[in-house]
Predict the 3D structure of the following.
Amino acid sequence: MGALRRVRLLIALTPVLVCVVPAAGARICTATEPTVFSVTGTTAVLKWTAPGDDGDLGRAAQYDLRFSPHQIQGTDSLGWWTSSGTMRCTGLPSPSNPGTTDSFLVEGLAPGNTYYFVLRTADEVPNWSYFSNIAVVTTGALPDTTIPGDDTPPPPVAGLTALPVSDGISLSWSPCSAPDLAGYLIYRTYSDLEYAIITEVLLHSTSYVDRDVLAGVSYSYSVTAVDYAGNESPLAQAAIATAPSASPAVTRLLAPFPDPCRTEVVLRYEIAEDWTWGTIKIFDIRGRLVRDLSKGRMEGGQYAVIWDLKADSGERVAPGIYFCVLSSPDLNSAKKIAVLK
């Protein structure tokens, strides 16, 4: 299977070349000339040249297009790709014959925001390509529809469902009828903890895949609707699902839960290797070691450790920002934790 495939991903008025590199051996595909496409306040049209299964021969089997409001940090493309804040497009077209143009309409974007898109291609095995270049799009601003003195929240979201899927838990719900709807927020809890928001920005679609989950753990979800005045609806009726069991693809530290926290925080991590040596430590914002939670041999799998917000001295830490760091011979993965009074 092939060496280099090229895909051109075009957004707004600026054509962007996206290179998708599959397994070694394929020939370079010939890319077509870029054309101009438009972006609205909530949508963007993406187009690219379809690669072949092997270079410009045969047809590829599938695409995977993901985007996030956050940029890739350094060279950590895989961390960005698998982050809970990265959204996966559904309903993508099947690859066309190599050299022809494929396109996709992305809906539900937030107005006045910048998004970063990355594309991958796979054959029938599937052998997945490397990550494409990053295509950047900034949506236009919508007119201000805020009603002066509006303090009426939208109605509760209805029809919330949660289903386990191969890469996490998939949520969907019915559209809110509020005429001044700004977007949705997703809340999650497990193990009798309080609900905490897991979406960093308002969502503009009625579906979401939570990939930041531990295999075999049951999660309870709820959704709220928010209008342009900032009024938030009551929590929707909860939906519960259990994350599927699967071997971790990468060694990583997952997002802490809840965050911010007041009494304790659950720190979850995954080990992809059969085993490795590692440590889990808490540092304050100045980089000083606060708590040594775990060290030694770590077996492959998914785990969770609870930090009771105490330092190694036994005293409760002061409110502020802390960092949990998972370290192994090949990795340093850090997550921020906000501790409240």
In short: The chain has three domains: 5-138, 161-242, 252-339. Residues 77-82 form the longest helix (6 residues). The CA atoms of residues 41 and 140 lie 4 Å apart.
